[in-house]
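Quiz preparation item.
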């Protein structure tokens, strides 16, 4: 069986080898949103990707992420474990329950929020159509949400 180095030297019409990124290689140095812990698994730095980014998000029990969007990027989320909700819209006025096995599609510039209302942790795989993880954290909707964010996350809003 060939090693990645041997495969690279004997490549045919393709220019990059397949890359396997192990969990200990994941990179937590990626833009974050309060209430979520993102790690990059596939990026330019980790895999040499040119048009895609993928990572994992862990959402702790009883936590709602801050309201955010991903600029011009399309986002696909796959629910691996836990039960949750996704809210979206300018005022987060739309909501859908999600469970393991569900895929979520978030179009460009759509403000959204991930919620884990249960006692079990939730894990979601995220894929975006860029090697750069764009995260634009938005202001809370009102003083009540601001107070909830501060109580839950220990911080105020992050505006980019």
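Solution:
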């Amino acid at each position: 069986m060939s090693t990645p180095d041997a495969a690279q030297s004997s490549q045919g019409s393709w220019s990059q080898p397949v890359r396997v990124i192990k969990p200990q290689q994941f990179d937590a140095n990626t833009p974050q949103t309060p209430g979520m812990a993102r790690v990059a698994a596939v990026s330019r730095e980790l895999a040499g990707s040119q048009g895609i980014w993928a990572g994992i998000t862990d959402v702790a029990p009883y936590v709602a992420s801050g309201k955010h969007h991903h600029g011009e990027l399309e986002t696909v989320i796959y629910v691996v474990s836990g039960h949750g909700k996704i809210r979206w819209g300018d005022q987060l006025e739309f909501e859908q329950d999600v469970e393991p096995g569900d895929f979520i599609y978030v179009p460009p510039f759509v403000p959204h929020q991930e919620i884990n209302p249960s006692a079990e942790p939730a894990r979601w795989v995220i894929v975006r159509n860029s090697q750069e993880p764009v995260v634009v954290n938005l202001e809370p909707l009102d003083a009540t949400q601001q107070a909830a964010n501060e109580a839950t996350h220990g911080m105020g809003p992050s505006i980019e």
